[in-house]
Each structure stands twice: as C-alpha cells, then as structure tokens.
C-alpha cells in the first residue's frame, strides 16, 4: 500500500531536495534580458535514444521548442500550419508549401530538399518511427513545394506529419548512422549541450522565424525520482516540474500545480470470446458493479476524472458528440469465478485491481487477481488468458486521432484486441471512422464507433488520468498540453 504523501518523513523530502541542489547551474548563456532568468526544467524520463527524433525522445525536443514539424495540431486535433504554410490532397499525394525565411540553428536555410531529407530518413529507418508503422511514405521536392505520397490513400497525412518523430532537422543532424539534433533544429531554442542522461542546455535562437523567445534559455535536468522532482519545486530548485506524482501533489502549494487531462483511460477489458464474460449479461453485471468514483477518490486521491466513455476530457469534442448507449441487462453473477490481470509498471494499477476485486466480489463474482510486470503479462493478455484485464491505455496515438486506438483495441483484426471482440457492427463503425476525412466528419464517425464498442460491454472505461505539472510562482506562459508535445514555448519565461 502506498504511503500517503502527507505521512512521508520530512527527512525523506529533505534528502530528495538535496538531490537537486546545484544541478540547475546554467550551462548556457548568462543573458537575462527579455524575460528574466533561464528556465530550470526538471523532467521525468532521461533520453533513451540519444535524443534521436526517430524515437520517443522526439517529444523532449518538441517540449523544449527546439525541433519543429511541417504541421501542428490544435486542441481539436485538426492540422494547422507550422513549417508548412498550406497543403492540398490529390488522391494518394499531398502537396505542402514550405515556409519561407526559416533557418536552422546552424544558419542553413530550410528548403524543400531539407524537408525531403528528414522525411526520407524517417520513412527508411529501421525500425520506423511509430507514427509510420504500417505506412509506406515517399517524399519529393518539386520547386518550392514537397509532395508526400502514400501507398494507400490516407486522410491523416497532415496529422501524421505533426508528430515530433517527423521533425525537420538540418543536414548536419544526419551525418553517420545516428541522428544528432544538437544545433540542428528550427525552433525558438537551440539545443547546445547534452550530458548523457543527466542534463541538457538550450539557448535562445535569436533568428527564429516566429519571433524572439522571451527567455534566454532552458536548463534541463532529468530526475526520474518523483519525490525529488516535487522537492525541487518546493525548494525553488526548479521552475517547471514535469509529472509530479499524485502522492506528492497534496503536499505542494496548490497554486503551483496544474492538473492536465491526459488522453489516457483506465479501462477494464472483458474477454468476450470465452469464459464468464462471453455472456453479455454478465459483462453488464460487471459494469454495474464497478464504482469508478470511489477508485478515483481512493486510489487517485481525486486527481482523475470518472469516465463516461472511452474518450475523455483531453478530447474536448468527445463529450459533446456522445449519445446514450443501449446495453444488455445485467444477469446474476453469483458464484461465477473470474481472474483479473494487470501489471505493476504503473503504480496505481495494482491498487485499482484490489478495489475492483472488492466491488465485484460484493456483486457476487469470485475474483482472483494475477499481477506481474508488463513485459511478463502482455502476451497472455493479448492471447485472452484472463477473464478481464486492467489497462491504462493512451486513446490518441501519435497522429492525435483516436480512430487508430479504437481499431487496434476493438476491431476483429485489431493488434491489441485484449477483449477478443469480433462484432460486425463494431467493425463496420470502425471502418467508417478510419476512412472518414479529418475534421467534424471524422469526429462524428469516431463517436459512433465508440458507442458501438460501449454497447457490447467489451470494455468498461473507469477513469481518465491527469498529469500534474508544477510551475513556480515566477513562471509565465508554460504550456499545459494533454498530448505532451509542448511545455516551454517562445512565450514562456521566468519573472
């Protein structure tokens, strides 16, 4: 059982704070004009792939505003101009006009050829960046434009090109087998130094095409220990702290923390192919037995949102388009034995499993839990070895679109179909959503697909997680992004 934050010994918090002492000494310029001092940033995860944009490290480059993409996404998930100013589709081919007057941090110009070089390196990488998994993409420079062609017609090409994994870097980044982003981006901050997995430094790039940043630079420290990150905010050692643990949030000044809805849903997947939950009425009984509110209050200390559907408040349009769903009536679960699986890698999930065990046993089920590390349980979950499985699942993938998640998890041919669901109505709704054009039409189709899944009770969404971000009192303009693509922007500074 997790020790509540309010009961942590003062010595533990003091020791955690000591871990950060002195580690934000500026590694960059000392200029403090146009926005005060440099921004001291404590991040949760260190680089895993040397900050290569072809890996998940790309999201760090994006959150530091050093590497940019052709397109960015608005709050609704629609594509907006970035390094590309406009685009149009002709079947399988999209044509992008490249922004004029942009320079890389090494002083070289952004050209269509530079864009093609970056996209081609990503498209031919092994393994490919996750955003291009299953996608065949080629790029060509034509006059002042770039054409992007896919093997099959794809309405989401602009959204794909918004992924930080498809950032456009200068030629110097691609010397050798690895991709080195130091001094090679186009953003308002230039990455100047990386110290392995311990720290990084960025300086303001005064020739940024979007206007001079308000802060002179960023000093980054990678602090995997959550207590130490929280202590850095308490002690004033850090200006912005990423991912403050729920257990620590209560002991911080509440004016310094912001809870950001994440596109991540904690869901109970029910095995529809075999066992107890092959019976739709018993799936309904399980759904009715679950008290998600008590889990939010007890396990997440109120820092999560009770789920009304699979898609949560990080997608602002989801609630507006959701309509009532007709489900099966609940049967009698008395004496029915079930095994629920989950994993230890996310600290809250074993606690969620214990709470569900009590709730379902109260309804009449006989419940056994099986909890392992994720690497040791995933294959069994995908093979349908459990009656139910608890999963914290990202509901929008790198394109910012939830259709891919719904198809993966609930399509008959879905690669992550833990519920073993094979339903013709669901498949038809998923196909419609996958093929729909981006925008209102696609959002409506996605909402209809969500309703089709919920009607089967193959999955019981319980709660939508939040991430807690800490901003010191002097911080102005820090981004609070559910997609975790932005954090420090050109408008962020410390007073």
UniProtKB/TrEMBL annotation:
GO terms for cellular component: ATP-binding cassette (ABC) transporter complex; periplasmic space. One of its GO terms (biological process) is peptide transport. Residues 80-415 form the Solute-binding protein family domain. Keywords: Signal. Residues 1-27 form the signal peptide. It holds the Pfam family SBP_bac_5. InterPro entries: Peptide/Ni-bd, SBP_5, SBP_5_dom. GO terms for molecular function: peptide transmembrane transporter activity. This is ABC transporter substrate-binding protein. It comes from Streptomyces spongiae.
């Amino acid at each position: 059982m997790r020790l509540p934050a309010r009961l942590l010994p003062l010595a533990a918090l003091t020791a955690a704070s000591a871990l950060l002492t002195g580690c934000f000494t500026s590694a960059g310029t000392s200029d403090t004009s146009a926005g005060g001092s440099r921004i001291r940033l404590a991040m949760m995860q260190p680089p895993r792939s040397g900050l290569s944009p072809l890996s998940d490290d790309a999201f760090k480059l994006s959150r530091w505003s050093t590497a940019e993409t052709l397109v960015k996404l608005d709050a609704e998930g629609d594509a907006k101009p970035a390094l590309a100013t406009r685009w149009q589709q002709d079947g399988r081919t999209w044509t992008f006009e490249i922004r004029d007057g942009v320079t890389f941090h090494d002083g070289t110009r952004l050209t269509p050829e530079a864009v093609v070089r970056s996209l081609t390196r990503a498209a031919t990488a092994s393994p490919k960046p996750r955003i291009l998994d299953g996608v065949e993409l080629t790029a060509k420079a034509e006059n002042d434009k770039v054409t992007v062609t896919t093997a099959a017609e794809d309405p989401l090409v602009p959204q794909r090109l918004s992924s930080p994994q498809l950032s456009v870097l200068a030629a110097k980044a691609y010397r050798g087998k690895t991709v080195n982003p130091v001094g090679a981006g186009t953003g308002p901050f230039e990455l100047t130094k990386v110290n392995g997995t311990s720290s990084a430094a960025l300086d303001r790039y005064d020739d940024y095409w979007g206007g001079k940043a308000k802060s002179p630079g960023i000093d980054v420290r990678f602090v995997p220990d959550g207590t130490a990150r929280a202590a850095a905010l308490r002690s004033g050692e850090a200006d912005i702290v990423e991912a403050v643990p729920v257990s620590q949030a209560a002991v911080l000044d509440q004016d310094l923390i912001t809870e950001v809805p994440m596109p991540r849903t904690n869901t109970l997947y029910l095995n529809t192919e075999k066992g107890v939950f092959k019976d739709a009425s018993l799936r309904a009984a399980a759904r009715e037995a679950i008290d998600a509110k008590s889990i939010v209050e007890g396990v997440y200390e109120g820092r999560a949102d009770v789920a009304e559907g699979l898609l949560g408040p990080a997608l602002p349009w989801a609630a507006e388009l959701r309509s009532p769903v007709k489900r099966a009536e609940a049967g009698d679960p008395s004496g029915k034995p079930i095994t629920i699986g989950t994993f230890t890698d996310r600290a809250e999930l074993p606690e969620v499993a214990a709470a569900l065990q009590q709730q379902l046993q109260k309804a009449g089920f006989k419940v056994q839990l099986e909890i392992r590390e994720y690497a040791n349980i995933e294959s069994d979950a995908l093979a349908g070895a459990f009656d139910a499985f608890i999963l914290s699942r990202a509901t929008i993938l790198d394109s910012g679109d939830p259709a891919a998640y719904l198809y993966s998890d609930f399509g008959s041919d879905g690669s992550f179909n833990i519920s073993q669901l094979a339903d013709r109505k669901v498949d038809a709704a998923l196909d419609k959503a996958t093929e729909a054009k981006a925008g209102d039409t696609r959002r409506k189709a996605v909402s209809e697909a969500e309703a089709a899944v919920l009607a089967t009770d193959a999955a019981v969404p319980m709660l939508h997680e939040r991430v807690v971000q800490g901003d010191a009192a002097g911080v102005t303009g820090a981004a609070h992004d559910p997609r975790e693509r932005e954090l420090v922007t050109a408008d962020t500074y410390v007073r």
